């Protein structure tokens, strides 16, 4: 259950990062509210996960899912560039997440 909660927390991190971008510096109401709600839910699920998972593992996986997810969302929905170096960097983050999971 801790790993599932952590995965959902990471996905919610992507949601709040994307909606924060859409909020235009918190000047648009709906994206600002989505950002706040997703942040609170993401932190709550992260905290729940940390009851059973080591701090370093939980936090690394949470931020990694958020970072790679935000990278994918930016490329897919905002037209951000997919250069070979950026894709390699994202792949290295995923490799680190896999290693972190295997070490737990």
UniProtKB/TrEMBL annotation:
Family according to the record: Belongs to the drug/metabolite transporter (DMT) superfamily. Small multidrug resistance (SMR) (TC 2.A.7.1) family. Gdx/SugE subfamily.
NCBIfam families attached to this UniProt entry: PRK11431.1
Membrane topology: Multi-pass membrane protein
Cell compartment(s), UniProt: Cell membrane
Protein name as it appears in the record: Guanidinium exporter
Family annotation (Pfam families): Multi_Drug_Res
SUPFAM superfamilies per UniProt: Multidrug resistance efflux transporter EmrE
Organism field: Lysobacter zhanggongensis
Residues that span the membrane, as ranges: 27-47, 59-79, 85-102
Keywords: Cell membrane, Membrane, Transmembrane, Transmembrane helix, Transport
Domain of life the protein comes from: Bacteria
InterPro entries linked to this entry: EmrE-like, Small_drug/metabolite_transptr, Small_multidrug_res
